[in-house]
Each structure stands twice: as structure tokens, then as C-alpha cells.
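Review form for a predicted model. The reviewer records the input and the model, then writes brief findings.
Reviewer: anonymous (R2)
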Amino acid sequence: MNSIKEKIAGLKSTINNYNKIAGISKLSRRYFAVNGFDGVITCIGILVGNYIIKVTDYKNVVITGMAIIISLGVSGVWSAYNSESAERKKEMNELQEATLYNLDETIIAKAQKFATIVLAAVNGFSPAVMAFIPLVPFLFGSRISIRICYYIGFALAFLILFGVGLFLGKISRANLMISGIKMLIAGVICVALSLLLTLLN
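Model under review:
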């Protein structure tokens, strides 16, 4: 039991050291907020689009939503991994040139590799999870009317937006309510612009 605790303590210490070297937590918060926002806004677009064209089969909403969620997740992981990997490799090369020392097996190199993996995961999973939550009511579409599914989905989406606003407000030490309302306004604008599509018919 003590050995397990020691291993956990050692792992926490290693992660803390990696975080100090590579600034993982700061970038993770940024990726989480920005990409989570993108995910929920995308889901609002999906819901509004399906609502406008009067999709009444909950399965179609789920399939459409899941296809886009998968795209968001894969795109997020892939793009972040490649961009972070390139940037951090560039930083390592510059540091090696400045120090005239091979840093491949150092804790700095390990921290940069760990940061790349963590940030890629956050970048991919945050929009996917945020976009999935408003679709949850549709998983129960066989028991709930499609109209109620839409209403609950919209409510969850706006609740997430408000939560992201609170999260950003807490980080920046700004007024939490104002920060949350700003995010809600973005959602309202998304819905309003989407509804304007009905005027094209």
C-alpha cells in the first residue's frame, strides 16, 4: 500500500515539474475554454439547423451531431498535436543551439513531449464533450417528445456557455455574471443568425 502511495506521489511530483517547465495548466485552461466554446456553439448550430428543417426523428439529430462531434475531436487532437509538437521542437532546437548541449534525454524534453500529448487531448476532447452534452436528451428520444428534446438541448447548451463564461471570469478575476452573460450573448447571436436562414426560403 505504501509503495502505491509513493508511486502516486512520485507521479504527482513529476507532473508538477512538467507543468512548471512547459506551462501546461495555463495553456490547458485556454484550450479548454476556447475549444469548449467552439464545441457548444457548433452544437447550437446543429440543433437550430435541425429545428428549422423540422427534423422529427431523434436518431437523425444524434447521427448528425455525433458525426460533427467526431470531426471536432479528431481535428482538435490532430491539429493541436502537430502544432504543439512543431512549436516545442523549435523551442528545443533553439535552446540546444544556445546551450550547445543535447537535451533529448533531459526532463525538459520529457516535459515538452508530455505537454504536447496533454494539450492535444484537451484540444480535442473539450469541444467534443461540450458539443455532446446538449445532444444527450435526444438519446432518450424514444421516450421524450422531439420538441422537449430540442428545448432541453438548447437549455443545456446555454447553461454550458454560461459556465464557460464563469470559468473565464474566475480566471481573469472579472465580474462572473458579466462574463457569463457575454457568452450567452454569443449563443443568442448564433441562434438569431441561424434563424435568419428561414428568410431565404
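Findings: The mean pLDDT is 87.
Further findings: The radius of gyration is 21 Å.
Recommendation: see findings above.
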